[in-house]
Structure formats: structure tokens, C-alpha cells
Amino acid sequence: MTKQRYFFLILILGSLTALAPFSIDMYLPGFGAIAKSLNTSTEQVALSLSSFLIGISAGQLLYGPLLDRFGRKLPLYCGLVLYIVASAGCYFAKSIELLIAMRFIQAIGACSATVTSMAMVRDLFPVKESANVFSKLVLVLSVSPLIAPTVGGYISAELGWQLIFLILAVISILILIAVILFLPESYKPDPTYSLAPGPILGSFWGVLKTPQFYTYSLCGAIGFSGLFAYISSSPIVFMEVFKVSSKAYGWIFALLSTGFIGSSQLNNLLMKRYKSEQIVNGALIAMIFFAAVFLIGSIQGWLGLVGTILMIYLVLCCVGLMFPNTTALALAPFEHNAGVASSLTGAFQMAVGSAVSIGISLFVSKSAVPMAATMLVASALAFVVLITGRRNIKEKVEVKEGAAVAAH
């Protein structure tokens, strides 16, 4: 594979991976404007985020079998078109109920991009490169949290929150054009793959019962929910508790995102010396410590705005180290049903994330305590799942720099 072709593959796959996060990050600064425009509360607006996460979770289970039956590109085309239509629906929404519904449909479309990009990484790259490739996808994905909230903050303040969804529709159209013109089909349609309920459930079960899959996918999903705790809580914590403007919130969000992004890129260097499993271990232990300090400081009122930003930054660094490795380890055992495996991995992440988002939106608290507490519980529980689950792995496909081996 030439360097130019490799670059374009990473760019397109990264853009697909970034579509769902962009759909979240860009409208977060507009929570207050949306609430005022639709005559509702910011807590009710937060439910539109929850509905999006639920749609992402449910939709990934739908696309997994479709990707293995029809190839990667046809289901992706359909999902992107659905996303464009739903984005237009969000633009014209005149009630919070309609916005919540349109966000759910938008998520169903967006998750086609998420599942397809993960499956195509498994199709196009050797297992030994997968963790590094996922780290590079995070680098492309980093465009979203770095610029989307800042742009969204200025748009909602100056031009109205509705324009955000029009821009999202245009972005998805550009991605669709790039996919049609430049992204190769990485998996031939399989006419023998049955879409009947029985065989589909059998495929899911075949993946689910694999110890390496359920250990690392659950561990990753639970640990990753710390990120969703931050995303769901941050508009209230920063704009209502600390009284920052929507524009300033966008800059804070971009700053904090560098923790997640930078650590995911640091993973490429660490992979030269350590196994993925060792990196996951260290990241979770550090995350437990930082989240505990964050919680104690929030309860005691020691942190203030700067201290809160610092603690969130440190926790997000740990999530950024953990995420590429748990994903790569979960998908490593699968070659022929990578679509199902990637859809289940994503579904676990979004199911846990949506539960966290709904819980925080219902638990009204004008402080950072719910965020910090969720981060601590998530990191501790993820570590328990890791320690417990890996005892059941009899033959592990390891992911490390330069080798992919079955360890007995």
C-alpha cells in the first residue's frame, strides 16, 4: 500500500469515525439557545443527546449483519442518506419532542459510518497494525472536539442553533461523495449470509461468547463511559455552575479534548515497548486515582474552574490511552465476521454511554459531583471486568508493535 493511498484511507475512515462525535460536539454549546428557542429546560435538551446515544447503540446492531451480507459500502450509503434527511429534520424542528425524535433517527444513520469504519480497519490492515490504525483514526477524529464546539458556540450565539444541523448535513454530503469516489469496497457481499433472525442471533452469540471479545469490549465500553459522563455534564457544569459563555465553553471543550487526543497518539509510542493489555492496565489504574481525587475535590469544593478542568483533562488522558487498545484487542480474534464484532463493540460503548447520559440528565445537580462520581465508578468497574474476564481467555490474540500472536 502506497503512502498516498494509506493517507487517504485513514482520512476517509477517520472522517466516518468522526461523524457521530461531530454530531454531538457541535451542538453542545447550543443547549441554552435550544432550550430558550423551544421553551424548555437544558435538562430536557440533554435528552436529545441521550436519544442520539440510544440510536447509535441500537443502530450498530442493525448494521453489523448488513455489512457482512451486502458488503461494506451499500449499507454505508443508506446510512449516510438517512443521516442527511434527519439532519434536515433537526433544522426544521419546532418542539423539543421532535428534536429528540430526529436526533434518534440521525443517530441510526450516523452509526453506519462508525460500524463500517471499524469493520474496514479489520478488513484492510493486519491485526498487528490495528491498534496503531485506531490511534490514527482518533487523530482524524480529533478535528471534532477541537473545532466543533468552538464553531458551534459561535454559530449558536450569532446565527442560531438551527444552522448547526444544516452544516452537519453538508458535512455528511461531502463524506458521502468521498466514500463513493475514493473508498474501496473491502469485503465482498456474501449471499450465503442469512438475515433471518436465527442465524443473525447465532452470529452475535458466536462473537459474544468469545472471552477475549466480551472482556475487552465490556471493559472498554465501561471505561469509555467516563467520556460520556463528561460530555453529558459539561454544558451544565461549565455554563450554569461556572457561568462561562457558550463561546468560552467551546474553547474549554477543545482544550480538554487535547487530553484524549494526545494520549491516544502517545499510545503509538508506548506500543513499541508495551503490550496493549499492559497499557490498558496502567490507564485504568491511573483513571481510578484521578477520578477519586476529582470526586473528593468536587465534594469538598476545593477545585474551582481551573481545578475542575485539570482533573477532567487527566481522566480523559487515561480514556484516550485505554480506548484504542481495548478496541483492537476485542476485534483481534475475528476475520470473517468483523462486521458483527465491530457492531457489538460499538453497541456496548453507546449503550453504556446512553445509560450514563440519561442518568446524569435526570439527576439534576448544579455541580461536578455526578460527573466525577460516574468517572470513578466507571473506571473501577472496568478494571474489575478486565481482571475477572481475562482469566477466561485460553488463547489470546495479542496486539503489539511488530507481532500478532496467539498466546496460550
Automatic annotation (TrEMBL):
The keyword Protease does not apply. GO terms for biological process: xenobiotic detoxification by transmembrane export across the plasma membrane. The keyword Glycoprotein does not apply. It comes from the Bacteria. SUPFAM superfamilies: MFS general substrate transporter. It is a multi-pass membrane protein. It is found in: Cell membrane. Keywords: Cell membrane, Membrane, Transmembrane, Transmembrane helix, Transport. Residues 9-391 form the Major facilitator superfamily (MFS) profile domain. GO terms for cellular component: plasma membrane. One of its GO terms (molecular function) is xenobiotic transmembrane transporter activity. Gene3D superfamilies: Multidrug resistance protein D. PANTHER family: MAJOR FACILITATOR SUPERFAMILY (PTHR23502), POLYAMINE TRANSPORTER 2-RELATED (PTHR23502:SF132). Belongs to the major facilitator superfamily. Bcr/CmlA family. This is Bcr/CflA family efflux MFS transporter.
